[in-house]
Amino acid sequence: MKLLEVIQTTLTDMEIISSITSTLFIILLGFFCRKKGIFNDTVGKMLSKVVLTVALPALAFNSFMKDINRESLVEGMNILIWGIVIYIILIFISKPMYLKYKGNKQDTLRVLTIFGSTTFFGIPIVGAIYGAEGVLYASIFNIGYRIFLYSYGYIKMSGLKMEAKNIKEMFLNPIVVATFLGLFIWVFQAYLPQVTVTAADGVKSQVAFLRLDQTAVWLFKPMNYLAGLASPLAWLSIGATLGAVEFKKAVSDRTSWFYSLNKVIVVPTINIVLLAILSMTGILSMSAICVGTVVIMMATPAATVAAAYAISFDKEAVLASNGSLLSTITAVIMIPIWIVIINLINHINIF
Fold it and tell me: Which sequence ranges are marked TM in the entry (predicted)?
């Protein structure tokens, strides 16, 4: 298929187009509501709390309520491995990226580049594009992210050793708990106590008793409703946050622009190149959905926790705030472009 035909096919695919427009329109709605005073200055934070403590945990858990086969298990293990390896690679690569900056400025830029808003920004978009399968792989990919964010990220920004409170936050975070619980059920469902369920067509089958989508539909259904809130509420929160920020100072900061381009363009490109090499050499291969999930997750703006570290430990707090704003704007613009690029790569059959 010729390049122009691939682009045309991508841009006329209603699933892709509707996912992109849903993201952009709801973010713009949140922006408009904040500018018009419909949302006050606390709405963005309140929406994000609902997303992070209720909607995303439900979304992550529900994504694992599906049958497992050898192919999906291999894909899950591959993306888990890559989700750990890529952060080790970025820790080393980010050093030469910011060689001209020294001290706290370099540390802040590196941490903001390594850690994106994969949970709050990335997973809702992955869910909109790839559905439950994409969320499943995104949740597995995020395990490595959580490990390094609460260990390397904290130590680098605080200058202190790892504290017990961070280990507690790492493992008792609602999203982490939901992810590990869901992952456990998904992987070991064949070994858990089995119960007989009857499908709508009368066919009976044996499933693990913890497969709530089959054994406790009365509980799974409300969790599905909560999971459905993740994307729209996250996008409204992003729009409301953008609508509350003063743009002029941030836009005039060249360092923040340099960081934003690195975060949203260079980092995803590094992932594509390395994954292509690994695939062609047979070392590590991934499906198109896995690769697309990784690219979207890595094209996210600065992680809220990473920016909070900079502010809490007084390490270039203004730079972190400006970088968060500009990288969010850049990501909103680039995500649709990355989705088109991912589709082009899929047609070329690199992976």
Answer: 16-34, 46-65, 77-99, 111-130, 136-155, 171-192, 225-245, 257-278, 284-311, 323-345
